[in-house]
Amino acid sequence: MTRKYNFCAGPAALPTPVLERAREELLDYEGRGLSVMEMSHRSPEFVTIAENAEANFRALLQVPDNYRVLFLQGGASTQFAMLPYNLLGNGGTPNYLYTGIWGKKAIAEARHLGGAHVAASSEANGLTAVPRPEDIQLSDDAAYLHYTDNETIGGLAFDYIPRSDVPLCCDMSSSILSRPLDVSRFGVIYAGAQKNIGPAGLTLVIVRDDLLDRAKPETPTMFNYRVMAENGSMYNTPPTYAWYLAGLVFDWLKNDVGGVEAIEVINARKAARLYDAIDASGFYSSPIAPINRSRMNVPFVLADESLNTVFLEEAEAAGLLNLKGHRSVGGMRASLYNAVSEAAVEALVGFMSDFEKRHG
Amino acid sequence: MTRKYNFCAGPAALPTPVLERAREELLDYEGRGLSVMEMSHRSPEFVTIAENAEANFRALLQVPDNYRVLFLQGGASTQFAMLPYNLLGNGGTPNYLYTGIWGKKAIAEARHLGGAHVAASSEANGLTAVPRPEDIQLSDDAAYLHYTDNETIGGLAFDYIPRSDVPLCCDMSSSILSRPLDVSRFGVIYAGAQKNIGPAGLTLVIVRDDLLDRAKPETPTMFNYRVMAENGSMYNTPPTYAWYLAGLVFDWLKNDVGGVEAIEVINARKAARLYDAIDASGFYSSPIAPINRSRMNVPFVLADESLNTVFLEEAEAAGLLNLKGHRSVGGMRASLYNAVSEAAVEALVGFMSDFEKRHG
């Protein structure tokens, strides 16, 4: 068995020690004679797994006591609908910042369900820089302000947390747990698991207590944050195995890596290594404004796009997987989530340099 | 490692060969250098896994070509909402049969979202027998008829498929794949995976093509069957690992067991063995009308309920796990899904007989 370097944007690389532990426990969890997958979600064993996962997640991000952490299903795309259902019960217009494809989808869903105001947009600069704070113009009746902290496809990341008098809501799918975070600045934070949390099929939501009372009456029960919060995310059967794996990832990040402060240093180093190599090259380039370059998703293009296929084939042969950019933008993209090692980045930079020498 | 006998109602026992194969492939799928969990859902490797799983599922149940099979999230509880959203776009009243706790929840959600007519109910007989065909009275404006094929908590199962001029919709969470099925009788069939399909966090929906055009305009995008169908259940990132595991279960059922015809024979034998032991005893009893006794979930009570705790403790010590009845009904429940072996049932019957001798 050889584990290759996996730069997939999501579902993404998981820490090898996490997978090894999962493998060890797969048929028999701690001598109980069954797999975690086969346990009742209401059994003492699974409840302990679930509570420990939440406790470690809360500890990692220092989530204040007046926030609930929900373990849900459906991905960020489901949150695009859940957010307006849960926060518009008192009326008002949801406000959005548009910085890329995911933000656009969130806006489209809010409009589909009633309406949305775009408070600032990166459209004019071709999605290469996020709006500056002074450019954000909320509507008078703003109910909340939503933004996408890190656009996974565009590789565009906020360099600041917007200030807002209305609840600030954020899609952090591809940046959560990559660095420390002041949760108290937010009303709602959500993230699909399949980047820095665990396998696909789990969605984490952090919601401030006082926002649990704003749901529209017609909110489907499974969409209602309050119902999920009051039932400890077990109103119905949760995705137990994904929850367990997320717990293993939190344990790894907290105890093996040393927490989000430690991973931030590593992530900064990884991203700098790759962006520096791109900038120093005459062959590779990044279209993103330096201040908004994502540490998690690094899109880049080759000077000669006719070499794209050869680049990807040679990369794969060298054990560097999933470097193709999203089908909607093309080019290349290297995702450098927490589980992607510095050795992986070093190997990528080495390959890119060699490729440039041979083809540049 | 010792695998114990697991009678959990869900998440439930999985076939040991499936878990062994998952373990073998966990860190490196077929020499690709990464786990299935770490693959892009759009990679050729995962698309092949997904397509094979669907093909095997379709083959097992002989799903006709004019039905779509969707791999979704959210469990049956989410389908309780999705169904009215998707089928009431042309108006009409949804009709329901009430035979237990899950049917009641489906009715409650339909009422929450607009209204429902109960076309027949098992309330008068204390949820111990399903309505007879002649008792079903649809409303004049019925848009569809929904029922719960097998009530997981009550252990109450339909002995027939209702006839209906409007689309017949069925929650088959705890009975799907336990026997052959004439899918052509139905408009929509759905099932949470965590009984006979795979791990929790995956929901299968079988929907007839012509029903994809009836969604209410305000249907959330992630709730829309048509959107899911047109995107091959990959409108957003699906629960890839659960999908893969479901594929392994389908493969096991089709190729190791011999299909749903073969498992039906085994399931009938397992259930008969346990019900016969209960009926022959003066100590155990089943409240359910014989014709409606579930083969999948066998609830039973002890003549002396003060022995419940001792029964469960001794059963667990004997390697017989999760026999406690649902908290809402009490007593005992043995779930005998496809992955529960005849040896497990034999061990349970032996234990029950021994317990009766010592305590009866």
Number of domains of chain A: 2
How helical, in percent, are the residues of chain A?
25-40%
| H/E element sequence of chain A | EHHEHEHEEEEEEEHHHEEHEEH
Number of helices of chain A: 9
- The CATH H-level homologous superfamily of the largest domain in chain A: Type I PLP-dependent aspartate aminotransferase-like (Major domain)
Measure the end-to-end span of chain A: 34 Å
Structural class of chain A: alpha/beta
Biggest sheet overview of chain A? 7 strands, mixed
Sheet with most strands: strand arrangement of chain A: 2-10-9-8-5-3-4
Protein traits:
homodimer, 360 residues, alpha/beta, Aspartate Aminotransferase, domain 2, Aspartate Aminotransferase, domain 1, 7-stranded mixed beta sheet, 3-stranded antiparallel beta sheet
